[in-house]
Automatic annotation (TrEMBL):
The chain crosses the membrane at residues 132-152, 172-192, 199-217, 289-308, 364-383, 403-425, 446-468, 474-498, 505-526, 538-560. It comes from Naganishia liquefaciens. One of its GO terms (cellular component) is plasma membrane. Pfam families: MFS_1. It comes from the Eukaryota. It is a multi-pass membrane protein. One of its GO terms (molecular function) is transmembrane transporter activity. This is Major facilitator superfamily (MFS) profile domain-containing protein. The keyword Coiled coil does not apply. Residues 134-565 form the Major facilitator superfamily (MFS) profile domain. It is found in: Membrane. One of its GO terms (biological process) is export across plasma membrane. Keywords: Membrane, Transmembrane, Transmembrane helix.
Length: 578
């Protein structure tokens, strides 16, 4: 005979996407199974005692039954919890083993479960070394895909010579890679929210690695261009997923420093790639570099398999629900969100269109995407200056070794690390402002960019007017480092603001932001060299400095008016005191 179906206390989900009940639940209802009366206790305010289906004691006052807000034995609500007696022992043994508890019964008779606050499988309960290690690994993968982009651009002349094509056709390989970077997150991000982070990392990284082989032994230029696009599409997983991984592991208030690690990887990835690959191609050649990448990326597939755990809460809870069904024989126990995902239409009508919906309808998303794209546009265009200012000809410093010339890109790395080391100032301001407001404020993430954004035009002006050959080479490098410092802070504000505002769906929102960034990145290299040739090094950099001034008022707008803008964004209007 099957065990009796439990009737349970429901807790409204609110904004607790990790299956953790609120400390003060908004409402609760009682299941619809008949109760039996018990003797009236010695309390004038209690008219009777009712017994629920688990023989739990429910006092009834003149205003109705006293229903407790949660069955989570670890929820600290200040009230005594329902005591469950005479129920299915297998069920409650399984609940205890999986660190979950039953919340309520839906209209179809299914019982939903959440994890307890002490659940060791909840990424937010992992020790700090593990949480930061996961974020660092995801960020390192971000650097590797940037390395792949730079590896092509530093040796593109060898590809042009091999196939006898123009520089425009050769450069198209970089643009197509960045186009894949742009379109990939719009698919990869919702897939990671539906199927989980790890499986998406494994599949996409396998494709990313396999398509390195045709690049090492290409029969024609068409093969190179097609493989570059596919690699960019598959390699976009770290760009799309790292923000979601940060939210999985840290939530909102404590995720600032973790996003700082992700920001640092986004800032230093391209210049590190240019510096490393410049030396490599100078000494061993472009196609040998592609073979090296094949081994490097293949090794990291096993690193992902062994060291990158699943962090997506819905996937973890689904696995727990599967374990409960197997242990108890009850087929109507599900994790929250699991029932929606069982519908075939959910993936295509909801998950896959979410990044496009965010980008087209969410003010926070499309404003962030525009700012992010504009800032990266300045980076993509200013990258053209390094070989002109420090290399041979073009009134530069006439350094003959291309590997040494590419080392100058490390000025951005210096600026990025200076920004990262100043992150504690931003974190202190964020917690101070949030404490004053009484809730975590996404607008407080823009505090450091209020002053750091000024380093963008300042740095470019310094680089512009010190880029003459008779001025010591360190002077323009200082300018580029200043630009890198300001760039770190404005990108960090964007990424932190998106993660804070969209939380559970941060990956989809970031997919839209990355889409705009890389569309610009795919287009700008096609005319950057012509701009510098026509204007000259000094005036081209000066033009970029003037253009970057348009970014100066943006942090002030979002810092002081961001809450109003956020209120117009349906997916984040329910957060933070609204």
């Amino acid at each position: 005979m099957s065990p009796p179906s439990p009737s349970l206390t429901a807790v409204e989900d609110g904004n607790t996407h990790h299956g953790l009940a609120d400390l003060e639940p908004k409402s609760s209802i009682t299941g619809g199974v008949p109760r039996t009366k018990s003797p009236i206790p010695d309390d004038p305010n209690i008219s009777s005692i009712e017994r629920g289906p688990f023989n739990e004691k429910l006092p009834v006052t003149t205003t109705g039954p006293v229903v407790e807000p949660s069955l989570d034995p670890e929820a600290k609500t200040g009230k005594s919890h329902i005591q469950l007696e005479h129920t299915n022992p297998d069920l409650f043994h399984a609940l205890e083993k999986e660190h979950v508890y039953l919340t309520h019964q839906d209209e179809e008779g299914n019982y939903l479960v959440r994890s307890t606050r002490s659940d060791a499988q909840n990424p937010r309960n992992w020790p700090n070394w593990k949480r930061y290690g996961v974020v660092a690994l995801a960020s390192w993968l971000n650097i590797l895909v940037c390395l792949c982009a730079s590896g092509y651009s530093t040796g593109v002349s060898e590809i042009e010579d091999k196939f006898g094509v123009s520089s425009e056709v050769g450069t198209l390989g970089l643009s197509l890679y960045l186009l894949g970077f742009a379109t990939g997150p719009m698919t990869v991000a919702p897939l990671s929210e539906f199927f989980g982070r790890k499986i998406v990392y494994l599949v996409s990284w396998a494709v990313f690695t396999i398509f390195q082989i045709p690049l090492a032994i290409p029969p024609n230029i068409a093969t190179v261009l097609v493989c570059r696009y596919i690699q960019g599409f598959a390699g976009s997983a770290p760009l799309a997923n790292t923000g979601g991984v940060v939210h999985d592991c840290f939530g909102i208030a404590e995720g600032g420093f973790a996003v700082g690690i992700y920001t640092l990887s986004s800032v230093i990835g391209p210049p590190v790639g240019n510096a490393v690959c410049g030396f490599f191609t100078q000494n061993v050649g472009e196609f040998n570099l592609f073979w090296f990448f094949l081994g490097l990326f293949g090794f990291h597939w096993f690193v992902i398999l062994l060291l990158l755990p699943e962090t997506r809460d819905t996937i973890i809870m689904t696995r727990k629900a599967n374990a409960l069904r197997k242990a108890t024989g009850l087929e109507n126990i599900y994790a929250e969100h699991e029932l929606d995902k069982k519908k075939p239409s959910y993936l295509w009508k909801t998950a896959m269109v979410r990044p496009f919906v965010f980008l087209m309808t969410e003010p926070i998303t499309y404003l962030s995407a525009g700012i992010n794209g504009f800032a990266y546009g300045m980076i993509f265009l200013s990258n053209e200056a390094f070989p002109l200012v420090f290399g041979e000809g073009n009134d530069g410093h006439n350094w003959s070794h291309s590997g040494v010339v590419n080392l100058t890109f490390l000025a951005y790395v210096v600026g990025g690390f200076l920004g990262f080391f100043s992150q504690p100032l931003q974190e202190h301001a964020y917690h101070r402002i949030s404490a004053r407001l009484g809730y975590p404020s996404p607008e407080a993430r823009w505090w450091s960019s209020l002053w750091a954004t000024f380093f963008l035009p300042i740095g470019l002006f310094i680089a512009a007017w010190t880029s003459y050959s008779y001025i010591p080479f360190i002077a323009p490098l200082i300018g580029f480092a200043c630009f890198g410092f300001g760039f770190y802070h404005i990108i960090g504000a964007i990424l932190n603001g998106i993660v804070d505002s969209y939380g559970h769906y941060a990956a989809s929102a970031l997919g839209g932001v990355v889409f705009v960034r890389n569309i610009i990145g795919a287009a700008f290299p096609l005319f950057a060299s012509q701009m510098f040739k026509k204007l000259g090094n000094q005036w081209a950099l000066c033009l970029l400095a003037f253009l970057s001034c348009f970014l100066l008022p943006i942090p002030f707008l979002l810092y002081y008016k961001g809450k109003t803008i956020r209120a117009k964004s349906p997916y984040c209007a329910t957060h933070f005191g609204h």
